[in-house]
Write a structure and sequence with these properties.
By secondary structure, the chain is an alpha+beta fold. It is built from five helices and 15 strands. A hairpin with a 5-residue loop joins strand 3 (39-46) and strand 4 (52-57). Helix 1 (80-91) runs antiparallel to helix 5.
Length: 313
């Protein structure tokens, strides 16, 4: 699939119509602030529902890497019969009556998978029993009854029944997905997480990012030193400090403990931070040493530091 005049998806992620007519409306090129990640975006609109889809590619290729919103898929942690009904509910959203019935069938099958499988019991009784047993909360039970009643109209073909609308189908599908997440997907994730915790406990080691080498200009012993350093992107203000080492081995006595530096947002970039590496006097420093800069407790930057006598005036 490439960025062409039309985008070829199996379903529209908004109305779920099959083989939708998604027409290109606009394209634009973007890049990161470091100019090292060029991207090309295509903006497409569904002719049927008017919903907009973004498609991403990385030049020079026009192959589509991702689409937003993405087309949903049924979670593989669900039981097979539940996946079948839920998948049909997704694929038939463009025909709301059919989708509502499939969502109700998915809910009914989930309860059967949890042991509420008496062939003489109705969906109504299964929901009541699940709430009584604490499998469902009262609120979830009320929502499940709402879905059950919504599906009665198209299923019983009442002459006075009001056809389901797309919003009704989406609401029913949303509950079926939430219930599947609650009853099957989350327990599966917890089991998998516990198993991985046991399997990996003896293998895990703390991971540290390799510090970045930075270039530091030489300084004079009779003067101070100042250099603005960009320290990266953080959602909250990072903790920054530094220390100076003799011959890259042991700390200078005055800097046995790292000295705190103030981090400030870069101009026009509120989530990017910088700091001023300020040293008031370099009089006691060695000819060659190393500066270590710590960000949130880890060594993030290192650089060689040269000092010499002041130039002749």
């Amino acid at each position: 699939m490439t960025l062409d005049s039309t985008l070829k998806l199996n379903n529209c992620p908004h109305c779920w119509v099959d083989t939708p007519n998604l027409v290109s409306r606009h394209t634009l090129d973007t890049d990161s602030d470091e100019k090292d990640e060029p991207q090309k975006w295509g903006v497409y609109a569904c002719v049927r529902c008017g919903g907009v889809i973004l498609a991403l590619s990385y030049p020079p290729s026009t192959e589509v890497i991702e689409t937003y919103p993405s087309t949903e898929v049924v979670n593989q942690a669900l039981p097979e019969q539940v996946k079948r009904f839920l998948g049909q509910a997704m694929r038939t959203l463009s025909t709301p009556d059919a989708s509502v019935i499939m969502s109700n069938s998915a809910v009914d099958m989930m309860l059967k998978e949890k042991g509420y499988d008496d062939p003489k019991a109705s969906v109504y009784h299964r929901i009541i029993q699940a709430v009584t047993d604490g499998l469902l909360t009262e609120e979830m039970g009320e929502w499940a009854h709402d879905i059950r009643l919504e599906s009665n109209n198209p299923r019983h073909a009442d002459l006075k029944a009001i056809p389901a609308e797309l919003s009704d189908a989406k609401r029913c599908l949303e509950f079926a997905k939430v219930l599947g997440e609650f009853l099957f997907v989350l327990p599966s994730k917890v089991k998998r997480g516990l198993k991985n915790e046991v399997d990996d406990q003896s293998k895990r080691r703390p991971k540290f990012k390799q510090p970045t080498n930075i270039k530091l200009e030489s300084a004079y012993r009779s003067e101070g030193y100042s250099k603005v350093l960009k320290i990266g992107k953080f959602d909250t203000k990072p903790n920054v400090s530094f220390r100076i080492m003799y011959n890259a081995q042991r700390p200078i006595a005055a800097f046995e403990k790292p000295k705190v530096l103030e981090a400030v947002p870069q101009s026009g970039k509120p989530r990017y931070w910088e700091t001023n590496l300020l040293i008031e006097s370099c009089e006691s420093f060695p000819q060659l040493g190393r500066i270590e800069i710590f960000v949130n407790g880890q060594t993030a930057y290192v650089g060689e530091f040269y000092t010499s006598s002041s130039p002749q005036k």
